[in-house]
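Table S5 (text form). Sequence records supplied for joint modeling of the two-component complex.
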Amino acid sequence: MEKSTALGKNRTGIDMSPIDAKEMVALSNSTPPSSPGDARDIAKMRGEYISEHDTLGSIPPPGTLKGVASTAMKKLTGKNPEAFIDKLGCRLAFERTGVRLYEALIAKCSAGAVGASKVSLDTLWEFRNQELQHFKLVESAIRSIGADPTAQTPSADVDGMIALGIVQVLTEPRTSVEQCLDAMLTVELTDHAAWELLIEFATKMGMEDMARDFQGALQQEENHLRQVRQWFRDLTLSDGGVES
Amino acid sequence: MALNLFDDKGCPLDKQQFTWKEMVQTPISKLDDDAFTRVRVILMNGQEMEALRFSHSCARMNDQYRLPLAKVRRIEQHQATMVNGLIGADHSTLETTIGYEQVAIEVTAAVAQAEPDEYLAQVYRFGMLEDFDHLYRYSAMLDRLEGKDANNITQCYTDIVPGRPTVIEHRAPQDDLRNHYDRTKAQPISKLHALTIMAAEQQTQNFYLNVGPMYADPVARQLYTEIASIEEQHVTQYESIIDPNETWLEKWMLHEANEVYNYYGCVQQESNPRIKAIWERCLDYELGHLQVAMEMFKQHERRDPAEILPASLPEPIKFESQREFVRKVLHQEVDLRARGTQFVNKSQEGPESKQYREHLNSSGSPTNTVAAGYEWTPGTELVRGAGVSYTENAKDKEVTH
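The corresponding structure-token record, covering 645 residues in total, follows.
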């Protein structure tokens, strides 16, 4: 099988230019910094901005009177429904992005990228479809409490920031399947932990029915995590010529 | 084989065309390609962006040239897209920035040595020492923000130490203007040099203005803000050395000739065969554009392009490390300052620039903040234990609270 890694003319390290590197280090050592201090100066400047206590944004109020008066919403009275809506919105966004990430991985594997033969396309399609179901499950849960599933909540926004690099890895034509699985492992580890937390959160908010519905998704996510971890392990070890 | 600008007519404009796929090709390898391949990509993107900027300005001021300009500009736009797309997305924005500064140092240093006009050579050396300092500041930011070594990008071709400190590069506008060359007396190479470096600096400024806000970190945003302001000064400096008495068509011809000149240098020195083929195509297209500009010049000004352009191209700009030259200039000229159009010792700097930067820096200088105590080390400063230790940090907190 073709490998993800190969020896070549990587030019980034200093060992590629031993004479120049020696000169550079000598100059750097003999040239004092132009101002005193260390990396804590950066932390101080960040601190000045952090202390302004701004936020990414807010949770939108329920869009309808029906929403405010819904049975589910009444159950949340006395608690902080905003925090729960924030995390539901986060899960919805994550699952929706998850569909697109699996589509990108399917495209990569379908095109015969390095390592594709080790991965089952049928399984990838199954996972992609399950991510879609999870998205719809959360969408319906958000509607059930009268909130707006099309709104982007702050936690959803943050997960979008996190996903930026993952989308780049999955859609970069030059990455191998093994490198994409590395990114997908990050996704699935987070996804799994987030579903566990969401179920606990729903239960504690008195939304037992919702928590029960979410259990099915968690089981499927456990399978995603196990399988992605296994593929990543197999491809990594195989690349090193130490297949188990 | 040397090119002849009048005999080598290149690809006719009406035969020049692209598909979307040709415009979006596989990028260079950040890891395996030579740093000078990236230098050429960044430089030529800058030249193409200048071609577009000039062409639009010219069209807005000259009714009779609008159509030929629009035809040539469409191809320039597609070339710009193709060239800029050669920087892969595995470069973080700061890593690409390191590449931009390497261009500003190595290309300007090469130009400074090849420039026959001593005053202009001094202008290039002056600007180069400032960009040299920017590389050091951005390297500190890359290390302290992303945990990466800038030398992975510069590949030991370029030193990473302070230059003329950015904090004192801020000058009043009157100290950024220079004397321009005389269009009737300057050698063609002087005109090409000026256009090349002006275009590179303008693209650098635009890049920093566009990408700075893409960072969440306010420190990185401030850093880009401070250095983009210097790049604005550099554009002001370099555009001011170009004779404003050149006619629009004279300038158009020079722009096209300059693109030919630079692509020719890229073709001569490119180490990646796939990228070399791209340079060859662009060279062929630019020769075609030059033909259009020369025809317009003959038709509208009733003058011979040979009055402006040399038949054979001057020696290309050298794409190689200028370490020794840069070190020498750093040693001899780091204390120079600009006063009006002249360069003086720092003791003779005028009050306007001092007052201007005193206010700008009054809430602190981001370029100093990011590089506080920074010494470049292979593998990042953490290799030599320069990070903040837990105990030091705890002590810091005790003082604060």
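Note: Residues 118-146 of chain B form the longest helix (29 residues).
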